């Protein structure tokens, strides 16, 4: 009895199993499998990309380190050069300043000399004028009387004669 | 999450043992006037199909869900009525449920010669109802899982959908892929459907309260259809080499020349493979149901042997029922697994590539 398939049950089984197979093989399992597999490939790809990114990052990091190293070396070099240049400049400036100073001093000295000579000349002139004036006054004083005047004229004439002869 | 499933499993088991008890209450009351419980009849009644879904009996009131009866009689045409029509008398519109004989428990009509004749019977019986229920359940569960991917395909899932995904991919990757071999993809949806169909019906059969408890996969009609579909798929996808190996195998000429001895054996093999599938699932599930029922009957059979014996046997019956409950859950999975795996293996074998020539060289 148990081993004879019942026709009604067979009919319903064919119907329902057919429906289940149709629906699930069309709308059920393929979608699930596809999605899980696409997710799997997505994860794999992501991992690969991440790995590549790590490698890339390491490379970049190394390159960066090289750049930083170079920069540091360059910096040291530039600093050194700057120091040298500075020293050079300062020395130059110093020398120039000394020279300039010396020149100025020289000039000043010359100026002073000239001024001095001028002043001396002036003083001389004034002294000469003063002495002429004084001499005039003294002469005038002395030539108050006639005798004196004659004496003077004679003497002066003598003097001229002497110089002529 | 895993704790939830554990609790679920325990609850299912508890219900299964309790339910078995509820079912078993009924024959005791029946047995009292008869004094004797016919264990064989009782078990057979429970594992075979019926037109009503008997739930329990409280006092004198039968609690049963009547199911629709759909008949086609060659003389009177179509008849559709509820099985409760047989409740008052055993006669309705010329049909009756056979008390004994070849069609015991089935609806028959008496033909003009006075002989019992089976009408074409596509009634929604207990098994059919359970079958439809499990089909709808399976379709909705899988479609819910499939639909959740449409929103955001690349997000990973947790909870029930994650569990189903794991389950499906486990069968897909560990059973179907290695067994079918390369180009397994067109067969995967069918094989997955097969697995979950058998599994759902097996598990539902273990739950003794209403929508479950029917002996669906323990019915030969069900496993027959499953085996036939697998048989068709195997032989339709059979490669040239597969047919050559059957009709002209690599054996000495006298084994195949005048009398096709080996081809005959091979050809028989083609049919025994799905036949074995059919019988294996059917027998396993039938045996599982029978054992649970038999263990439950132990309580009622030992009533006559006095209270001490009866109590100890009740305890024993309970302990064994729990144990068998666990085993049956395992069997439900294993049978679905084996059915799918063997179907996959047969498909894989039918798609052999020629390899003998290479070996000869």
Can you characterise this structure?
The complex is a heterodimer of chains A (165) and B (361). Chain A has helices at residues 7-142, 146-164. Chain A is mostly helical. Chain A has one domain. Chain A is rod-shaped. The mean pLDDT of chain A is 89. In chain B, helix 2 (39-47) packs across helix 8 (261-301), helix 4 (159-180) packs across helix 5 and helix 5 runs antiparallel to helix 9. Chain B has 2 domains: 61-121, no CATH class; 126-350, no CATH class. Chain B has 10 helices and 9 strands. The radius of gyration of chain B is 25 Å and the shape is globular. Chain B has 361 residues and is an alpha+beta fold. Helices cover 62% and strands 11% of the residues of chain B. In chain B, strand 3 and strand 4 form a beta hairpin. Chain B has helices spanning 2-34, 39-47, 126-151, 159-180, 188-206, 220-236, 240-247, 261-301, 307-350, 356-360; strands at 52-58, 61-66, 68-73, 77-82, 91-92, 95-97, 107-110, 116-117, 120-121. Chains A and B meet through helix 1 of A and strand 9, helix 3, helix 4, helix 5 and helix 6 of B.
């Amino acid at each position: 009895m148990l081993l004879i398939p019942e026709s009604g049950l067979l009919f319903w089984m064919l119907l329902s199993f057919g429906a289940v197979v149709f629906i699930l093989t069309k709308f059920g399992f393929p979608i699930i499998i596809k999605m899980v597999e696409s997710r799997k490939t997505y994860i794999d790809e992501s991992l690969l990309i991440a790995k590549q990114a790590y490698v890339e990052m390491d490379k970049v990091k190394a390159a960066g380190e090289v750049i930083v190293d170079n920069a540091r070396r360059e910096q040291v070099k530039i600093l050194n050069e700057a120091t040298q240049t500075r020293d050079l400049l300062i020395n130059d400036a110093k020398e120039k300043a000394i020279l300039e100073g010396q020149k100025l001093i020289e000039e000043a000295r010359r100026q002073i000399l000239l001024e001095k000579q001028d002043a001396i000349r002036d003083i001389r002139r004034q002294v000469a004028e003063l002495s002429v004036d004084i001499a005039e006054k003294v002469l005038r004083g002395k030539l108050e009387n006639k005798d004196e005047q004659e004496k003077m004229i004679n003497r002066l004439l003598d003097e001229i004669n002497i110089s002529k002869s | 999450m895993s704790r939830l499933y554990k609790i679920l499993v325990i609850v299912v088991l508890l219900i299964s043992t309790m339910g078995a008890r509820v079912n078993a209450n009924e024959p005791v009351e029946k047995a009292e006037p008869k004094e004797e419980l016919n264990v064989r009849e009782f078990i057979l009644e429970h594992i075979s199909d019926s037109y009503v879904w008997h739930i329990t009996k409280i006092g004198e009131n039968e609690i049963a869900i009547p199911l629709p009866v759909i008949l086609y009689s060659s003389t009177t045409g179509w008849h559709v009525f509820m099985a409760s029509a047989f409740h008052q008398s055993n006669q309705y519109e010329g049909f009756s449920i056979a008390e004994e004989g070849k069609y015991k428990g089935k609806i028959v009509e008496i033909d003009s010669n006075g002989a019992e004749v089976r009408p074409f019977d596509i009634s929604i019986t207990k098994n059919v109802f359970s079958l439809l229920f499990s089909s709808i359940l399976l379709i909705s569960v899988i479609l819910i899982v499939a639909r959740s991917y449409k929103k955001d395909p690349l997000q990973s899932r947790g909870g029930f959908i994650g569990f189903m995904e794991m389950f499906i991919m486990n069968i897909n990757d560990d059973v179907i892929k290695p067994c079918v071999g390369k180009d397994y993809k067109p067969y995967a949806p069918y094989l997955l459907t097969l697995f979950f169909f058998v599994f759902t019906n097996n598990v539902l059969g273990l739950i003794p309260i209403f929508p479950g408890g029917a002996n669906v996969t323990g019915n030969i009609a069900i496993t027959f259809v499953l085996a036939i579909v697998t048989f068709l798929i195997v032989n339709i996808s059979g490669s040239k080499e597969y047919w050559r190996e059957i009709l002209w195998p690599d054996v000495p000429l006298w084994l195949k020349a005048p009398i096709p001895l080996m081809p005959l054996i091979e050809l028989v093999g083609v049919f025994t493979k799905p036949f074995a599938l059919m019988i294996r699932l059917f027998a396993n599930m039938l045996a599982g149901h029978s054992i649970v029922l038999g263990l439950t009957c132990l309580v009622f059979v030992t009533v006559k042997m006095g209270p001490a014996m009866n109590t100890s046997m009740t305890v024993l019956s309970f302990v064994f029922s729990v144990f068998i409950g666990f085993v049956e859950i395992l069997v439900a999975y294993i049978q679905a697994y084996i059915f799918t795996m063997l179907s996959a293996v047969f498909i894989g074998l039918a798609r052999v590539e020629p390899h003998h020539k290479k070996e000869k060289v």
